Amino acid sequence: MRILLLAVTLVLAAGALAQPATEAKSWPSRAIRLIVPFPPGSSPDLIARILAEKLAPFRERRKELEAKPERVREALRYGEEKARAIASRTMSEVREAMKLP
Q1: ∠71-23-32 over CA atoms, to 5°?
Q2: pLDDT tens digits along 32-65
Q3: Residues near 52 by Cβ (< 8 Å), separated by ≥ 6?
Q4: Which of 55, 64, 78, 100 could be cross-linked to 95 through a Cys-Cys bond (beta carbons 3.0 to 4.6 Å apart)?
Q5: What's the CA gap between 17 and 55, in Å, rounded?
Q6: Which is nearest to 61 in space by CA: 20, 11, 32?
Q7: pLDDT reading at 6 higher than 90
Q8: Which of 25, 8, 5, 13 is nearest to 69 (CA)?
Q9: Please, what is the average pLDDT of the chain?
Q10: Is the pTM above the cut of 0.70?
Q11: Of residues 9 and 40, which shows the higher confidence score?
């Protein structure tokens, strides 16, 4: 049960780290500590260490993107335009298939 609780906690922490940069302020403003309430070398400790290692590239990429907010906005605008074009074509096909005006 404890391992399941730890796994859920780690997944939620990973989700928090993966939030879009547009919503980010200056968090984290200091180093992130991952506290594992188990002895070193235990399974939960090893899982936490592996997870922290796997998340490192994402944290680095986030730092890079936070330093260039205009680049992020540009990518979001591009994605929005592309999505609108696809949605417009899809809706045209739906209206045609359903014989709607």
Answers
A1: 100
A2: 778 888 999 999 999 999 998 998 898 889 889 8
A3: 34
A4: 100
A5: 9
A6: 20
A7: no
A8: 25
A9: 82
A10: no
A11: 40
CA distances from 22 to 71, 74, 78 (A): 11, 11, 15
Q: Which amino acid does the sequence have at 42?
A: S
Whole-number pLDDT of residue 33: 79
The tokens describing 72, both together, are 């992020």
Which residue is associated with the tokens 């992020």?
A: 72
Question: Could you tell me if residue 18 is left (phi over 0), alpha (psi between -120 and 50 degrees) or otherwise beta?
Answer: alpha
Q: How far apart are CA 92 and CA 94, in angstroms?
A: 5
Report the alpha-carbon distance of residue 54 to residue 18 in Å, rounded.
Answer: 13
Which DSSP helix (H) or strand (E) runs through 81?
Answer: helix 69-97
Asked whether 95 and 101 are in contact (CB, 8 A), the reply is: yes
